Amino acid sequence: MKQLFSIVIFLAAAVSAMAAGRDSYTVIVSLDGFRWDYIDTYDTHFLSVMGRNGVRAVMTPSFPSKTFPNHYTLATGLVPDHHGIIANQFKVAKSGRIFSLGNDVARDGKKYGGDPLWLTAKHQGMTSATVYWVGSDVAVQGDHANYWRDYNQKPLLTPDERVKEVIKLLKKPEDKRPHLVMAYFEQPDSHGHKYGPISRPTRRAMEYMDSLMCELYKGLMELPIADNINFIVTGDHGMTYLSPERVVPIKKYIKSSWVDNICNDFPTLLYCKKPEYVDSCINALKNVDHLRVWRKGECPEYLQYGNNENMGDVIVLPDLGWKFTDGIVALNSGSHGFDHTYSDMWVAFQAIGPDFKHGYQRKETFRNVCIYPLVCHLLGLTPSPNDGSLDEVRDLLK
Ligand code: AMP
Ligand code: ZN
Ligand code: ZN
Fold this sequence. Notes:
The chain contains twelve helices and 18 strands. It is of the alpha/beta class. A hairpin with a 6-residue loop joins strand 3 and strand 4. The N terminus is likely disordered. The protein is about 30% helix and about 20% strand. Strands 1, 2, 5, 6, 7, 16, 17 and 18 form an eight-stranded mixed β-sheet that branches.
């Protein structure tokens, strides 16, 4: 009787472990600026085969389609207005200091709201690892993943070393092995900016990333846990061409006496010196072609943007490919940050593994806030409150 009782207990524990996904692993890779159509434009043999054998879809970023806001949205399932990283650069209302990529303000964990995946996992007793994912190298909630890499510590691991690092993490003994690994790569964004989305250097960058993803997948498939790994390759936003001919000069419209700070380009956030200058800025810009302009709190609802406490007093959003600047725009250069409903801003999503369908190409886009509930589901984690929905991506699963 006693023996029967322990077998029942053991089976119940095993079933609950399986239902909780505790024997499951998720490796999620972000290729910065991985535009949704690069797979068809370039010779990304591995990623094409991965999509044909697993799942292929197109994901829409959150607004603004920038690196910091969207990586942290992927991690938390919250849109930027809700997690607080509203742009790559913004002014912090309380201190008046500027948050900017890599500076000390951007390294203050208190600026990062929500519950990123690596902490959702860790705080539910699951080992997690990050390799440079935005936000993972600052002490969000005063904590980090069990294994993490500091983007400020140079030299950074090369892309090839990052692939080896992921494999090394998954080769750890079972009690130390992470079940969630999130890894970040700068390409093809870097070349997309410098040479434009459709260019030979961007082709080379994308094809190199494809070969690295192939190497990573082969490495994963050689592990004893191969059958339990869900592997996702996606990104933060797309890329579009800029032009020296598509510029709206700031100085022509905005007096320097009206504003304390001008942050970013897509969108441009204007922080005004006095409340009355908000009207001055709006009136100066409201009839300018190729720009849209809103007061804080008055952006259209679909952007889910503009109410955060650190938002600029005025938000200026150029049309696709246009720039509101006094700087120089190089010929054939590229950028992103625009309205996330433009297809140039959309992102590729490929996934393969035991929980994903085989050979399924989804026709409709899904929102990147759904990655958080999706990964929680794959790992059997209870998600924290988020803006996504597992139902929106359930068709990707078996
Ligand atoms: P974007 O201007 O939106 O294209 O931002 C891309 C840049 O973000 C890349 O060039 C990276 O160097 C930078 N970046 C990515 N992750 C981090 C990080 N954790 N800390 C600081 N900068 C980062
Ligand atoms: Zn990016
Ligand atoms: Zn970029």
